Amino acid sequence: MKTLGVLGGMGPAATVAFLARLQALTPAEGDADHIRVVMDLNPQVPDRNKTPKKAETVLGEMAERLKVAGADILAMPCNTAHAQAAGIRKASLPFIDMIAETTAAAKATGAEWVGVLATPGGEALYRKALRDQGMSLMTLDGPDRDVFLDLVYGVKRGDVGDRAHGEMRRLAGLFAGGGAGAVIAGCTEVPLLLGQDDVAVPLVDSAEVLARACVAACREHA
After folding, report:
1. 57: domain range?
2. Active-site residue list
């Protein structure tokens, strides 16, 4: 099996949850059947929205270190930071594109209109990816967008209580009620507050999509 290198820490709780999904989705009879993972959990990556060039430099350095540590394939459980993927690709290792994989999963639902729960940077990435696949995007606006961002930063502070769950469920319901055929959890904090049972239409969980893609890539010749 190939060794997976994970660029993590954006944010820490989402990265830990991603690793748990990676383990749970790997068909295994014992320890040796699981994927070897080398990880840089770095919460000090510069702000991807405010200082994108600095973020790209740091992500590139992380990718190089993971390569030296033995990674064969790279993945990053952060949607927004995929805007700086060029720096990661300079390490000359296969990089699993979370945005592309999630967009493909959304298309497979048959939805024409897709609601996206993401940061402004993540929205921009999904807007282009979905339109390239012939789908239309629905996003939050006004006070609801502010509520969403507060919820995301709340998860980073450890707030995953009932109120936060209820608000995220309400926001996803706006898409379902507005005609969306699917909802993308386009920020890796979202699945910590929202599950398929909370949404009336298919929920495309970008973290789970990425985890499945990593398992498939690393076990391709196993």
Report:
1. 4-97+209-218
2. 78, 187
